[in-house]
Amino acid sequence: xxxxxxxxxxxxxxxxxxxxxxxxxxxxxxxxxxxxxxxxxxxxxxxxxxxxxxxxxxxxxxxxxxxxxxxxxxxxxxxxxxxxxxxxxxxxxxxxxxxxxxxxxxxxxxxxxxxxxxxxxxxxxxxxxxxxxxxxxxxxxxxxxxxxxxxxxxxxxxxxxxxxxxxxxxxxxxxxxxxxxxxxxxxxxxxxxxxxxxxxxxxxxxxxxxxxxxxxxxxxxxxxxxxxxx
Length: 230
What we know:
Number of helices: 10
Helix content: 40-55%
Distance between the termini: 46 Å
Largest sheet: 8 strands, mixed
Structural class: alpha/beta
Strand content: 15-25%
CATH architecture: Alpha-Beta Complex
């Protein structure tokens, strides 16, 4: 069952000193046709992030620092039928808009949230291992994260309460309210920067991430887990 109307899209990108990576992110998103708006929700950058955003004719929304707070602000400001939440260091692969439009054109998918396949901008064996770990998490637990791009219809987003101003696990919190059975995974990839894994360690960083997820699923408050996450 499809909807003949052209889907309109609000793109929300939280930023903090993202001038170096934001151009690639925004360039990939230009392939979406008419009916698009882009919100850069900035948490107080002191580099050229805002200048880059203006160059791509994005709307700048100042917000308190914190991804949950910033995503919540962007979601409240969006006006289109569909919302796409993307991290500033994520670049959509060629053809992402084709798969997204097909998904959005099916009325039944207005009750689903979709995410793209996780990939890293690194060809090392360590990077490939992390990609497989994320694929397992998405398949077995139904928990994609925001660095994969999250696409959701406005009515569903509002029905589940949207993003909450959490210091951590804001994506997991949203996905769990939508329900794992309502998660759709795209074949197209969303490539994100491997810099945080190089800084934090190819083993240490993902291990810490999984431990934080475990603590959250056990019921520990996100503000406690955020202290461990660092």
